[in-house]
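Amino acids appear as letters; backbone shape is given numerically. Here is one record.
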Amino acid sequence: MATAVIAPVSAAARPQIPAPPPASFAPPTPTTLQSTYEANRANAAEAARMADAHGDRSRAAADRWMAAPARQLLTFDGRGPGQAVEVLGDLLKADHIAVLVPGSDTSLDTYDRFHKAAQALHDRTGPDTAVIAWLGYETPGTISTTVLTPTRAEQAAPHLRTFIRELRGLVGDSTGIALLCHSYGSVVCVHAATDLDDVDDMALIGSPGTGADSAAALHTSARVWAARGADDWIGMVPHTRADLFGTTLGFGPDPTSPSFGAHVFTAGPAGHSDYFTPNSTALKNLAHIAQGAPTEVTHA
């Protein structure tokens, strides 16, 4: 408990890294998509210059990496922990789109591992599927009190819901959209997906619980999937939920339990950070879900 309290306080005491405010756009259209990418790369380049001048060479390097000419950024915000939404592949030509929503301890400083997960999925699915790495919220720290509550998910959900609706408006009704939600990201996805009918599939992987009692309680038309690797420590987390002094602690039922009602698929021996390991059982099944091929998914 001492660590959980001290770690957030220490993080808050760190001087803020200067960066420009994010570029402001109307929702992208097929004709403005490239200019959106260009403007966000320019914002990342300016953030790198400001971080370098501030003396934070690590963040400056991360920002410069984000500003590389090949990057396709729908949004970029270099302030604080940072946020970014990146596209791998061609949104306008893809038959399917997978949106990855990360869990705790994901920021611009740790973005490389999130990008690797998105790249591994895109390599597996091929050019007919675009992958979006959606770091559109401030994730909680793994060792913190925040990770035990739905607060960050409640704050993030409206942004994810708006993003999905704008994405659907950009790509049209014929393109399949899947949400692939890891760890605390599954809490975000469930809060966002209730009554959202722009998603075809939603996969909850390595989930501590979602805050929902069942898949049916989401009132979504999406197929709801769930998986947990055999070596994932999240399986030891108690699936309880309690109100304490006006704050909800815990996330309730295990999404992989029969009573939850999700389609449970095999993830092999995956540990908590291994679901997107190349050639793994988990990645193969996630690729099938992303491609809208439910009959190809191996069920647990």
Observations:
- The beta strands are 73-77, 83-88, 96-101, 129-135, 176-182, 201-205, 223-227, 241-244, 247-250, 263-264.
- Helices lie at 2-13, 33-54, 57-66, 111-125, 151-171, 184-193, 281-290.
- DSSP finds seven helices and ten strands in the chain.
- Residues 194 and 217 are 8 Å apart (CA to CA).
